[in-house]
Design goal:
Blueprint (H helix, E strand, L loop, with lengths): L2 H10 L12 E5 L4 H12 L3 E5 L3 H13 L3 E4 L7 H14 L6 E4 L14 H21 L1 H4 L7 E8 H5 L5 H25 L1 E8 L15 E3 L5 E3 L4 H9 L15 H12 L10 E4 L6
Parallel strand pairs: 1-2, 1-4, 2-3, 4-5, 5-6, 6-9
Antiparallel strand pairs: 7-8
Length: 292
C-alpha cells in the first residue's frame, strides 16, 4: 500500500467520506512534476478541484489527465509565473473552473540558480527573487477578490520555503533571501486577511527532499529562463555521492534519510486540511528533524 493511499484512508476514518478538501478549488503552481504534482494528486483524492499551473505545458496537461483518469477534477493552465498576463489569466480560469470560487493557493513554483556571492550575476539574483517572492505576491494579489469574502468557506494559502531560507546556505544567497522573504509574506497575509475573512496563511519549509533539485546535476535536469538560457539543476555528482555514501550520510537528519515528494506533498495537504483549521502564520519545517 502506497504512502498516499494510507493518507487517503486515514482521512476517511476522520469522517470525511468525500475528502477533506471536498469541493474546494486549489491553484498549485509548479505542479507539472515533483512535489507540486504529488500535491495536486493528493488534493484531488481529497475531493479538491485542482488547477495545474506549470511552465511546461506537456507536463501540466499530463498531470491533469492522470487526475481525471482516476476520477478526480483538474484542469491544466500552463504558463510563466514571471508573466503578469499569465498570472491574471490563471486566476480568471481558476475562478471559472470553480464557479466563482477559489479556496486554496499553493505557491510552489521555483528553482535554484546557485552561485557564491562574489560570482552571482544580477540576472541570477533578479530571476530567483522575482520567481519566489514577486510572483507569489502578484498571484495572491490577483486572487484577492476570491479570498476577501465572507461565505463561511475555508480559505488557505501556503507559501513553500526551504531550510535555506531558515538557516542560509553557502552558494545560495539569492535563494536563501527569497525563501526567507516568503515567511514575511505569509505572516502579513495571515494578519491582513485572517481577522475579517478567516483566511489562513502558512509557510512549509522543506529540507532534503528527493526532487530534481537534489538529484545529481549530471542527470541533465534544467529549466529555461524567459530569454532562452538553460539553468542546470541539481547537486554535482561527486558532492551528492559523498553526501549519500560517506560515513556521515544523512547523519544531520535524525530520521536518517531524505524525504520523498509524496511525504512533502502530504505535509502541504495537512496544512490546508481541516486538521490545521486553527493554525495560521506559521512556518512548518518538513525536514526529518534536520536543524533541530
Amino acid at each position: 500500500m502506497s504512502y498516499s493511499t494510507r493518507v487517503t484512508e486515514a482521512a476517511a476514518q476522520l469522517n470525511y467520506p468525500k475528502g477533506m478538501l471536498n469541493g474546494q478549488v486549489a491553484i498549485i503552481t509548479g505542479s507539472g512534476q515533483g512535489i507540486g504534482a504529488e500535491t495536486a494528486r493528493l488534493f484531488a483524492r481529497e475531493g479538491a478541484k485542482v488547477v495545474i499551473s506549470d511552465i511546461d505545458a506537456e507536463k501540466a496537461k499530463k498531470v491533469a489527465e492522470e487526475i481525471k483518469d482516476q476520477g478526480g477534477s483538474a484542469i491544466a493552465v500552463p504558463g510563466d509565473m514571471l508573466n503578469d498576463d499569465y498570472i491574471n489569466g490563471l486566476v480568471q480560469k481558476a475562478g471559472e473552473f470553480g464557479n466563482g470560487k477559489i479556496h486554496i493557493i499553493i505557491n510552489n513554483a521555483g528553482f535554484t540558480w546557485d552561485g557564491v556571492i562574489h560570482k552571482t550575476t544580477d540576472k541570477q539574483w533578479d530571476t530567483i527573487i522575482a520567481l519566489h517572492n514577486t510572483a507569489p505576491f502578484k498571484l495572491v494579489r490577483a486572487a484577492a477578490p476570491y479570498f476577501r469574502v465572507k461565505d463561511n468557506e475555508p480559505r488557505s494559502i501556503v507559501n513553500i520555503s526551504s531550510t535555506s531560507g531558515l538557516h542560509g546556505n553557502a552558494g545560495q544567497a539569492n535563494y536563501a533571501l527569497a525563501k526567507a522573504g516568503v515567511t514575511g509574506l505569509t505572516k502579513t497575509i495571515a494578519k491582513e486577511w485572517g481577522p475579517a475573512f478567516g483566511v489562513r496563511a502558512n509557510t512549509v519549509a522543506f529540507g532534503f527532499i528527493l526532487t530534481r533539485l537534489t538529484a545529481a546535476k549530471e542527470e541533465g535536469a534544467f529549466v529555461t529562463t524567459p530569454d532562452g538560457q538553460k539553468v542546470a539543476l541539481g547537486i554535482p555528482g561527486a558532492q551528492k555521492k559523498a553526501r549519500e555514501e560517506g560515513s556521515a550520510a544523512f547523519k544531520d537528519i535524525p530520521l536518517g534519510r531524505p524525504g520523498t515528494a509524496t511525504e512533502a506533498a502530504s505535509a502541504i495537504l495537512a496544512v490546508v486540511s481541516p486538521l490545521f483549521s486553527y493554525v495560521s502564520g506559521q512556518t512548518i519545517s518538513v525536514t526529518g528533524g534536520r536543524n533541530i
